[in-house]
Amino acid sequence: MQRMAQEAGSSSSNGYFTCIARVFQIKKTFYALLNITILCGCLTILLLRGTIGIRNPSFTYTLGPKISNWDQERSNWLNKNPEFPNYVNGKARVLLVTGSPPGPCDAPIGDHYLLKFIKNKIDYCRIHGIDIMYNMAILDEELAGYWAKLPLIRRLMLSHPEVEWIWWLDSDAMFTDMIFELPLSKYNNSNLVVHGYLELFNQKSWIALNTGSFLLRNCQWSLDLLDAWAQMGPKGPIRDEAGKVLTAKLKGRPAFEADDQSALIYLLSSKKSQWMDKVFLENSYYLHGYWVGLVDRYEKIMEKFHPGFGDERWPFVTHFVGCKPCGSYADYAIEKCFRSMERAFNFADNQVLKLYGFEHRGLLSPGLKRIRNETTRPLEFVHQIDIRPIHRLKTLLHGGGGDSVTHHRYQRPFGGGGGGATWQADKENNPEFPNHVNGKARVLLVTGSPPKPCDNPIGDHYLLKAIKNKIDYCRLHGIEIVYNLAHLDKELAGYWAKLPLIRRLMLSHPEVEWIWWMDSDALFTDMVFELPLKKYVNHNLVIHGYPDLLFDQKSWIALNTGSFLFRNCQWSLDLLDAWAPMGPKGAVRDEAGKILTANLKGRPAFEADDQSALIYLLISRKDEWMDKVFVENSYYLHGYWAGLVDRYEEMMEKYHPGLGDERWPFVTHFVGCKPCGSYGDYAVERCLSSMERAYNFADNQVLKLYGFRHRGLLSPKIRRIRNETTTPLEIVDQFDIRHSTNGHS
């Protein structure tokens, strides 16, 4: 109760949907409150009738056309589309939804922390088999700010009938128990699960519930609730006047415009008989955990407990209410907020890094330290330390060993490390983690960015757009994703950092058949095109390039390592070991750079880079490696941006997505732009405007399902391209670009 009382000055907030405005000045508040008694009676009557009518007595705001038979329509659709089940292996399908502003944060460091928040959510969702949606568009200008989640959730429900639960999580909320799993079976008879306290709810306290993290079942009841909830949301007079009603009716609420959290509390408390039977007030674990009472206890928590509890012993979610990392003001000192966010991120990240043998040097340090030596039997650690649900169950049933190990990975100088000659046999002994699902090879897309903020103040915002773009593609095609923000090996920093990361992921994820590396400055621009993986059945490395440039000209641009696929096999581990020796920074890399410049056509004089080193390796040891390398140029696994971004309008006029080649490029790669660096090979303005065009070009393909598109390829704003309908599933069947998947096994 004391923790809840501490929240009184701030309610559920996030960087994007800025949950609560600053409390008005005391003088203004005093005079505003004098008028509440007069206004309250009239407004309450109108509100309980389901309309506010401030601007027009006959005006009633709606989220869209009234849907009245959703449960039956959705059931029919699911029966007709068994490839899109709402339950996978007996587990309800969940879509986690979050978002942030379409434009950069007021403070540049805000975007960097939004990146950390989304990396944290990607990790949790990957571990627990949850789909994720990251939104950066305002679907309804009337419901901007903290209300923007409502039209988004409704649109997602109607466009994704295969999803059983929509889980909204504010952008400033972070998972801090990566093992705890939602007890969904507990909610079989409920449609809304929200963190709250019945005692406070009965007192009509404005902090009785928190809407920064809640689950809404995809059903008719939820659509009706959203319609009723939205009535106080339209900006302007309606929201202002409704705020006065909420302040008058809810205990402890300051005077400010209506917010979504207060509106929900008021709606549920004033119409209990209509709604509360299907509402589950959850407080047995921290679906929402107020950060002030948690972040300074992490060391004690680690000392006394272990992840998996989800409650005060090890909080499931830590929510930075009142910090507003993306805004220009906050309810707390910004230094305290960012310091606490860093602690929460590293506290959670340590639970993920443990599988790979690392942890942060401290809860305020982006640097890592090794917590165990490598071994030639890496799968022993997968069994002992993997935090995915099936492995945890096996450990409980059969017992788990300790973390000690006597072997060291560096078998020779600057090698990728040990891996054992029995890797192929070792990885085939766990049928519950198949490397093919429904006949399709399992793919893990890997990308990353620096652990510290970009030198370019706007760089983190474009990294955020790039990861949102990758999240979209991976969700559409059933691909898992890892976003890395750590250096695993300081010797292989910079563009070489991908090698130790890829190797570690191979050894820790034997169920993954392909590791797909993609640079942070590469965007998917054909959201329909799917990798022709069957084409590569006899190959272990797939990389964009041209054989004539590679072998005839020995050109340093014959291949591009910004986007390539590596099969998880012994051959790939051996290639990584052969590739890495030119990478260690300092004298080794400098001298290797001279060799590469002397042997590769057109290469400038600079230190060794991973791309040139791979080209040199394949040329000089062709007989050893090339039999398993597929040099791909029939589509744009890598597409050089300078020749593409100015042609997007022509492409849209003449062609359609799904081609993947020069007609509609699969990937647009911003080689030389370095959006996170302090310099690049091209003018920064040209690079950023081109990245904006590429992002919106791709985003239009996703937004089309929801009935929107960007006003222009340089505009963050969107416009409606078709009217809503009372039969939304006809639109799903017509415009859905997803490839069917039965989910993760």
Automatic annotation (TrEMBL):
Class of this enzyme: transferase
Organism domain of life: Eukaryota
A GO term from the CC aspect: endosome
Transmembrane segments: 30-48
Keyword Transmembrane helix attached: yes
Pfam families attached to this UniProt entry: Glyco_transf_34
Gene3D superfamilies registered for this protein in UniProt: Spore Coat Polysaccharide Biosynthesis Protein SpsA, Chain A
InterPro entries: Glyco_trans_34, Nucleotide-diphossugar_trans
Coarse class of the protein's main subcellular location: Golgi
GO biological process assignments: xyloglucan biosynthetic process
Organism phylogeny: Eukaryota, Viridiplantae, Streptophyta, Embryophyta, Tracheophyta
Annotated keywords: Glycoprotein, Glycosyltransferase, Golgi apparatus, Membrane, Signal-anchor, Transferase, Transmembrane, Transmembrane helix
Similarity comment: family membership: Belongs to the glycosyltransferase 34 family.
Membrane topology value: Single-pass type II membrane protein
GO molecular function annotations of the record: hexosyltransferase activity; xyloglucan 6-xylosyltransferase activity
Official protein name in the record: xyloglucan 6-xylosyltransferase
Catalyses which reaction(s): Transfers an alpha-D-xylosyl residue from UDP-D-xylose to a glucose residue in xyloglucan, forming an alpha-(1->6)-D-xylosyl-D-glucose linkage
Enzyme Commission number: 2.4.2.39
Cellular localisation: Golgi apparatus membrane
